[in-house]
């Protein structure tokens, strides 16, 4: 194992060790301040994983900075739409399964992206474009349900809360995108899978 891979493995193992203390913790709904919204995505491991994973995926699929910004904007729009919908329509049974599904999809997308033969087999043509759309579209759609869960739990006006949550979400996406530039590796898929499993079992 190379030094870079050992470093990535150590990072993932360390994150896994910390995950149980954070898993599924969602403080912040007792207030609707900007800070509560900003901290909310950081204190819920399922949301944290989904947003960082989204950043990893968009960095892998989009080569131009402008394209990355567009994809990130769609992701934030999905999250905000979910927040507003959750506040207005209330709890539905579909939300939790879709949140769980989003973590599975994130791992699968990263796995496909990191496969060595993907670059050569889908280098040109409409197949490559369709594959990239699917790899980005699925996580984007599922971010809606993370926002929906926030909206259901919140009460009253969530303008400041929502703004704070969007800022943190954007930073987490940017963090994921930056991590992917460090290494294009299957370790990301393994790490997201491990963290997702711990979060769901906690």
From TrEMBL:
<protein>
    <submittedName>
        <fullName>Urease accessory protein UreJ</fullName>
    </submittedName>
</protein>
<feature type="signal peptide">
    <location>
        <begin position="1"/>
        <end position="25"/>
    </location>
</feature>
<feature type="transmembrane region" description="Helical">
    <location>
        <begin position="131"/>
        <end position="149"/>
    </location>
</feature>
<feature type="transmembrane region" description="Helical">
    <location>
        <begin position="69"/>
        <end position="92"/>
    </location>
</feature>
<feature type="transmembrane region" description="Helical">
    <location>
        <begin position="98"/>
        <end position="119"/>
    </location>
</feature>
<feature type="transmembrane region" description="Helical">
    <location>
        <begin position="41"/>
        <end position="62"/>
    </location>
</feature>
<keyword id="KW-0812">Transmembrane</keyword>
<dbReference type="Pfam" id="PF04955">
    <property type="entry name" value="HupE_UreJ"/>
</dbReference>
<keyword id="KW-1133">Transmembrane helix</keyword>
<keyword id="KW-0472">Membrane</keyword>
<keyword id="KW-0732">Signal</keyword>
<feature type="transmembrane region" description="Helical">
    <location>
        <begin position="161"/>
        <end position="183"/>
    </location>
</feature>
<dbReference type="InterPro" id="IPR007038">
    <property type="entry name" value="HupE_UreJ"/>
</dbReference>
């Amino acid at each position: 194992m190379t030094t870079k891979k050992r470093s990535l493995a150590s990072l993932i193992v360390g994150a896994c060790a910390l995950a149980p203390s954070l898993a599924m913790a969602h403080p912040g709904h007792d207030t609707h301040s900007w800070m509560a919204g900003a901290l909310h995505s950081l204190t819920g491991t399922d949301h944290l994983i989904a947003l960082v994973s989204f950043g990893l995926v968009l960095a892998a699929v989009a080569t131009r900075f402008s394209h990355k910004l567009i994809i990130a904007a769609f992701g934030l729009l999905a999250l905000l739409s979910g927040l507003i919908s959750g506040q207005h329509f209330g709890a539905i049974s579909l939300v939790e399964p879709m949140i769980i599904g989003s973590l599975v999809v994130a791992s699968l997308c990263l796995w496909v992206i990191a496969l060595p033969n993907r670059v050569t087999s889908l280098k040109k043509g409409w197949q490559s474009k369709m594959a990239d759309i699917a790899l980005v579209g699925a996580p984007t759609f599922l971010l809606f349900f993370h926002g929906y869960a926030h909206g259901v739990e919140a009460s009253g006006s969530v303008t400041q809360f929502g703004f704070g949550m969007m800022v943190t979400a954007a930073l987490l996406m940017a963090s994921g995108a930056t991590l992917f530039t460090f290494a294009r590796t299957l370790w990301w898929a393994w790490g997201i899978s491990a963290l997702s499993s711990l979060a769901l079992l906690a």
